[in-house]
Amino acid sequence: MAILSVESLDARHGLLQAVRGVSLSVAERETLALVGANGAGKTTLLRTIAGAHRASGGRIVFDGADITALPAHRRARRGIALVPEGRRLFAGMTVEENLLVAGGRGAGGEWTLDRIVETFPQLKAKLKARAGDLSGGQQQAAAIARALMTNPRLLLLDEVSLGLSPVAVDGVYASLRGLLGGGATVVLVEQDLARALRIADRVVCLLEGRIAYEGAARGTTREQVMRAYFGLRGAAG
Amino acid sequence: MSVPAVQRWTAQSVAFAAACGAGLAILAAGPAIFAPGTTDRLTSLFVYVALAAMWNALAGYSGLVSVGQQAFFGLGAYAAIRLSHAGMPVYPSLIAGAALVGLLALPLGEVMLRLRGGEFAIGMWVLAELAHLLVNLDTLVNGETGTSLIAIDAVSAASRRADTYWSAFGAMVTLLLIVFVLLRGGLGASLQAIRDDEQAAASVGVRVLAAKRVVFVLAAFGCALAGSLWLASAITFQPRAYFSVQWTAYMIFMTLVGGLGTFEGPVLGAVLFFAVETLFGAAGVWYLVGLGGAALLFALFLPRGIWGAAERRLSLRLLPVGYHVVLPEKVAGAD
Amino acid sequence: MILLNQILQGVFLGAYYALIACGLSFLFGVMRIVNLAHGSLAVLAAFLMFGLSDRLGLSPWLALLAAVPVMALVGWLLQLLVLERSLRGGALVPLLSTFGLAIVLDNLLFEGFGADTRSLSPYIGDLSFASWALTNDISVGQLDVLGLAAAVVLLGGLQMLLARTRLGRVIRATAEDPEIVGLIGIDARAVYALATAIAMALVAIAGAFLAMRATFTPYSGGAQLIFAFETVVIGGFGSLWGTLAGGIVLGVAQNLGAYVSPNMFLISGHVVFLAVLVARVWLGEVSWRRLRARVA
Question: Considering the domain boundaries, does residue B252 fall inside one?
C-alpha cells in the first residue's frame, strides 16, 4: 500500500528548476533512501512533500488524499513530519519545550516524552537545557525527537549526518535503528552511499532534479548508484 | 567574437535628459514669465521635490526609514532665523543655517545610525520632538507663538518672491545633482548592496557605516535647506508647523507613491503631491486621511511606487543611474 | 518631601508607561514588527471607551470590558489586512504601512470626535482624585496604585503565559522560527493573528488608564508611541520586567525634570532616552547586554 505517491512533481528555486517531473511512491513501513550530489534536488523534494516549499507542477497524494494544495501545518497534522536540513531547533527554548510544543496533539499517539527519552538516551540529561547549547549530535537527536512527537505516519529526514562527527552520526543512526526496523515509514536523504544501501529498503538517486536510478537496496551495487549519481552512461533505472 | 559592452547611457536616457534640460531652462526663467501666485506655488513644489529626494536617499537607497526628518526641516529654519537675527544677510543665512545643521548631523549620526529598522525610525522622531522642545526654549522664538524672518521684510515683495524662487530652484537642482552623482559612483553601488543585504555587503568590504553617514548628513542638510527655504517663502516661524510629523507623512507619501529607490520617483511623487495638495488641500482632515491611506495602500500593494512599477513593466531606464549590458550582435551560422 | 513625592509620582507614571509599552514590546517580540500605529490604536481604544461612557452612559469599567474584545478583534483584522502583507514586503514595508495607518486613524478620530480634549476622569467619580495618606506629607492616588497593580498583573500574567502555558510555547516557537513551526503542525499566521489580538487587548487596557489618569485628543497617538518606545528601549527589548523598570526610569526622569522647571518634563525624558542609546553604542551591544543582565 503506497502511503505516499508523488506524480510528476516540479519545484523551482527562483528561476532554477530544482525538481523536474519526479514520480515515486513510498509503501507503508518502507525505508526509502534518497541520494544524489549536492544540488540534485533532494532537499527541495523533501521540503516540497512536507509543504515547506511550493510545487510548481504535479501532484502529491498522501494516504489517498491529494495534499498538493495544503499548507505545511495541515500536512504535519495529517502525519507528515520533516526533520529539516540543519536541525532548526527553537534555540531559545529548552529541549523539553521543543518536544512539548510539537506534541500534545492528542489522539493517543505512541510517541510520548518518556518513550522519546528511552529512544534517545543522550537527551535525558539535557531536557532542561537550552536547545541552542546542545552539541551537534544532541541537536540532531532532539530534532528527530521533535518530529516524532507529532506522531507522524511518514517521517522525512533531511541529511541527518550533515555537520556531525562520525561518532555522532553513528549515535544518531543507532537511535534510528529501532525506528527503521519497527514499522515506521521513512524517506531519508543520505550522502553516505554505503550507509544508505545498508539501512534502506529502496534507493532513489536524483540527478539535476530527475530520477536517475531507482531500485531495491538489496539488489543494488554501489557502482550502479554512483554511475547514476555522476550521470555516467549505463545507469539505467 | 565581440565582447558584451557595459553602457550607462541609452538613446532613451539621452532623449529624456534633453527633455529635462529644456524643462529646467523654462523653470529657471520662472518669475519673469509666471504670475506671482504661480511663482509662489512653484517654490513650494521645489521644496517638496527636495524633501522627497532626501527621504528617498535615506529610505529608498539606504534602507533607513526616518520618521524624524522634520527635526532638520525645523532646525534649518531655526538656524536661518538665528543667523539672520545675528546680522547675516538673509539669503546666505538660509544656506549657512542648513550647512550648520548638516554639521550637527555628524555627531547625531554616530549614535542614530547604529540603530536599525523601527528603532531608527522612532529614534529620529524622538530627536525631532527634542529639537522642537529645545527650540521652544529660545526666547527669540517665544514658544509656540513663534517669530518671523524679519530681515526679509526689508526686501520688496516681488524681489523677495523672485529671489526665494531662484534659491529654491537652485537648491532643488543642486540636491538632485548631488544625489545623481553620488548614486552613479561607488556610493550608489555600496548603498544598493547595503539595501539588499547589509551583512553580506559588509563581508565583501563595503564600508556600511561610512556610506550611511554620507547619506544621513546629506539628507539632514537637504531637509534643513528645504526648511530654511520654506521659511523664506512663508516668513513666519511657528515651531509646531515646522517640527510637525506631518512633514514625514508628506515625504513618505511622495516617495512611496512616486517610486521608492528610483531616481525619478521622488520627483514624480512630489509633483503628484503638489497636484493633490492644490486640488484637495482645503478638504482638511479628509485630505490627510487620503494621504495616509494612499501611503498605506501603496506600501501594501505597490511598494515600488508608480515609477518603480513602470520601470519594471516597460524596462524603462530614463536617467543613467545604473548600468546595462549590451550584447554583441549575433553572427549568423557561428557557434 | 516634594521631591520624594515627585519621584513617587514618577513611579506611578512609569507604571502607566509600562502598560502602554508592553503591547508594543510583545508584538515586536513575536513578529519583529515595530507598530508605528501603536499609540494611535491606544487613542482609538480611549475614544471607544469615552464614546461608550459619554454617549451610552456606561460605567468606564464596563466600557473597558467591552473595549477589550473589540480591540482584540481590531488586532486580528490588523494582522490579517495589514501586518501579514507587510511582513512579506520586506523590512521597510511594516514601518511604512503602520505609519500610514497611524495617519489615517488619527485623522479619522479627528473627523469623528473633533479637536476637543477628552478624558474619562469625570466618569470615574472619586477615583480620579482619591488617595491614601502614607505619612503626613506623602499620599498616593488610588487610581495610581490601581495602575501600578494593573501593570504588575499584566506583565506578570504575560510572562506566565509565555513561560508556562502551551499557548506560550507555541507563541515563542513561532516567534523564533515561523517557517519551521509549520512543520510541527502550527499555523504561524494564526499565531500571529492571536498575538496581535493579545497586543491590542493590552493596548485597550493602556488606553483606559490613559483616559482615566489624563486627557487625550485625536492626535495624542504620536506622543504615546514615543513614550512606549522610549520605555522599551530604556528597559530592553526582550524583557517584560525590564519594561516596567524602563517605564519607571522614564517616569521618574520626567518628574525630576518637571521639579526643576515645567518645561523640562518632556525634555528630561528624551534626554535620558538618548543617554541610554549613547551608552548602548559606546559600550557596544555585547557588553551592554551583559551590563543589563547584571543589573536586571
Answer: yes
- pLDDT, residue C244, reads 95
Q: Which residue of B has its CA nearest to C277?
A: B111
B132 found inside a domain: yes
Contact partners, residue C135, CB within 8 Å, separation at least 6: none
Distance of CA B89 to the CA centre of its chain: 26
What is the second-level CATH architecture of the domain A2-230? 3-Layer(aba) Sandwich (3.40)
Q: Which of the residues B122, B191, B291 would you substitute to probe the C interface, choosing the one with the greatest number of C C-beta atoms within 10 Å?
A: B122
Q: Is B98 part of any domain?
A: yes
pLDDT digits over C26-78, tens only?
A: 999 999 999 999 999 999 999 999 999 988 888 889 999 999 999 999 999 99
Q: State the number of CA atoms in the 13 A half-sphere of C168 facing the CB.
A: 11
- Give the chain C residue nearest A98 (alpha carbons): C173
Under an 8 A CB cutoff, do C270 and B133 touch?
yes
Rounded to whole angstroms, how far apart are CA atoms A214 and A8? Answer: 15
Query: Looking at chain B, which residue has its C-alpha nearest residue C105?
Result: B289
Reported ipTM exceeds the 0.90 cut: yes
Interior/surface letters A38-72, b for 16+ CB within 10 angstroms, e for the rest: eebbbbbbbbbbbbbbebeebebbbbeeebbebeb
Cell of A46: 523533501
> What's the rounded mean pLDDT across residues C144-163?
94
Determine the distance from the C-alpha atom of residue B175 to the mean position of all C-alpha atoms in its chain, rounded to a whole number. 8
CB neighbour list of residue B219: distance below 8 Å, 6 or more residues apart: B54, B55, B57, B58, B66, B69, B72
* Interchain contact B117–C (C-beta under 8 A): yes
DSSP percent split of chain C into helix, strand, coil, nearest 5: 80, 5, 15
pLDDT tens digits along B27-56: 887 777 778 788 889 999 999 999 999 999
- Output the pTM of the full model: 0.90
What total of structural domains would you count in chain B?
A: 1
Q: Which domains does chain C have, with CATH numbers?
A: 2-295 (1.10.3470)
- Integer distance in angstroms from the first to the last C-alpha of chain B? 10
Instruction: Give the domain CATH number at B320.
Output: 1.10.3470
> In a 3-state reduction of DSSP, which class is residue B107?
helix
Per-block mean pLDDT, blocks of 10 residues, chain A (237 long):
90 87 91 88 93 92 93 93 92 94 72 86 90 90 92 91 84 79 83 85 90 86 82 60
For B156-183, b/e burial (b = at least 16 CB within 10 A) is eeeebbbbbbbbbbebbbebbeebbebb
Residue B19: domain span: 5-326
Which is nearest to B225 in space by CA: B103, B132, B95? B95
Min distance C85 CA to chain B CA atoms (Å)? 6
- Establish whether chain B is in contact with chain A, requiring a minimum of 3 CB pairs below 8 angstroms: no
Residue B207 main-chain phi, psi, to 5 deg = -85, 90
**Is B236 a member of any domain?**
yes
The 3-state secondary structure of C136-191 reads CCCEEEHHHHHHHHHHHHHHHHHHHHHHHCHHHHHHHHHHHCCCHHHHHCCCHHHH
Give the 3-state secondary structure of residue A85: coil
CB of C154 closer than 8 Å to CB of C22 = yes
The per-residue pLDDT for B331 is: 47
> Within 13 A of B318's CA, how many CA atoms are on the CB side?
15
